[in-house]
Here is the input.
Amino acid sequence: MRVVLQRVTEASVSVDGQIVGRIGRGFLLLLGASDSDTMAIADKMTDKICKLRIFADENGKTNLSLADVGGELLVISQFTLFADCRRGNRPGFTQAGAPDWANQVYEHVIERCRGYVPKVEHGVFGADMKVSLVNDGPFTLVLDSQELGIG
Here is the structure.
């Protein structure tokens, strides 16, 4: 599983010109799943993300978690995180999870996130989405379950 996490002051996602998800302060997650991912991997990744301490405390140190600051989550599916650009100029996507499986993982992550914070918004799996955000910092992390020793 791969996730691009952006700490935001606000973010939204729209489909066909209609906003389907909007948050204030929190995390925008772009999430890609592969066929080798499991629900156990999804659980560990979600736990890691939701426990990350990347908000400033009273001393300006990144020491507070999403729950500590009353943060919100916007989760967007993004299979292109598994793009293979090693050959030629057209990316290959064979490492991305099959749509049915990737959607199950995506929905599972959304539900698990709700155990950490009360407001979890999301996009529409497989749709052409327009994502807007104000990156706070900017603060962006790239998390890969294999690199973290999770999967």
About this structure: The radius of gyration is 15 Å. The beta strands are 2-15, 18-23, 26-32, 55-56, 62-64, 72-77, 120-122, 129-144. The chain is about 20% helix and 40% strand.
